[in-house]
Every structure is written in C-alpha cells, then in structure tokens.
Amino acid sequence: MKIDEISKQFAVHLGVAESLLDHLKDDARLHRMMVFELDLSGLADVSALCQYLESEFMYPYRTVGLDAAIDLISDLEWFGSTQGYLVVVRGATDTSPMTSVFAPFLPPIIDMWRKQDIPFIIAIDEKGVQLEAALAVANAEMEEIGRRPGTQPGTGPVEVVIHPTERERNTQGR
Questions:
Q1: What backbone torsions phi and psi does residue 12 show, to the nearest 5 degrees?
Q2: How far apart are CA 166 and CA 17, in angstroms?
Q3: Which end of the chain has fewer CB atoms surrounding its CB within 10 Å, N or C?
C-alpha cells in the first residue's frame, strides 16, 4: 500500500497487515510525511495513555488529560510538516482497556487535519467490534457537532476503512 493509493487520507484504517504497514511507512517517509509509531500494549489507564502520547508526540510543554492530547495532536506545529502525518497504531485490541479510550478521540483529530488539508492517516493493525464501535460513537458525535449552528464548515464524521485480512482477501479472490 502506498500513500498515493490511499484515497482516504483523512481516515482511520483498521486491520492493516504488518507487511502493508511497513510499505506504508516507507512510502510516507519518501513523501516527507512524519511517521509516528504507537504501541498501546501495556497502558493501564488514561493517565498512562496521556503520558505516553506526550512522550511520543514530543509536546512542547507539559499537559494533562485527553482534551489536551486532542488539541496538541490536532496541531503538531512544532514539527512544521506540511506534507502530512502517518500514525501507525499497534495494541488497540478489543481486549485492551485503552481501545475504548483512545479510539474516540481519533475522529476529532482527523477532522482538524482535514480542515487544514494536510494528510493525516491513522493505520491500526487491529480491527474488532470494540474498536469499530468506539469509532462509530465518536463519528456520531462528530456528525452532531457538524449540524450545530456556527460550526466550522466541513466538520463531521471521518471515514473508517476496514481492510480485509489476508484470509479474507484470498477468499474474495476466489
């Protein structure tokens, strides 16, 4: 998978195979995009998640809470990239306590990048009922926000692309 082949550059991609993630990261770097690799495995609570995100995204100052994380990841001005960002996420499984915390703040972040017209791609190696449900709830909230008077035009849900597993691809090809 290549950056140019992803028609949904303002989306959450679920179930992206490891081999495709490697190609995607290489291609993103060739396009001078910044690449972040997150691993949510082992994060026990919201505080640990917030500290982890602060470290990985190298916030320019100390923050507290998920709202601050959403604001800062929606900006990333300290990196100065105009080519875009790829965020690869591992460990967002249906059994991870962080999936239901982490997934809902992805649509608002992507929505902010979409308004700036700077590609922001989130590629998650997992897919599952909990992850999809958390994203659906967040997208429903984004849709509601988009309908409110005075909301910035274009505000709304983001696309969630569910990639088939290798087994599903092989079955579809028959």
A1: -100, 125
A2: 8
A3: C
Place of tokens 């994060």: 43
Tell me the pLDDT tens digit for each residue of 29-45. 998 999 999 999 989 89
pTM for the complete prediction? Answer: 0.88
- The pair of structure tokens assigned to 141 is 């909230």
The single-letter code of the amino acid at 36 is F
Query: Rounded CA gap, 6 and 42, in Å?
Result: 30
> Beta strand 85-90 with 34-39: parallel, antiparallel or unpaired?
parallel
User: pLDDT for 144-153, tens place per residue?
Assistant: 999 999 888 8
What are the angstrom distances between the C-alpha of 105 and each of 17, 38, 79?
23, 15, 21
Distances (CA, A) of 159 to 14, 79, 96, 145: 11, 25, 23, 16
Between vectors from CA 77 to CA 76 and to CA 83, what angle results, nearest 5°?
80
* Three-class secondary structure of residue 146 per DSSP: helix
Tokens standing for 56?
């990985």
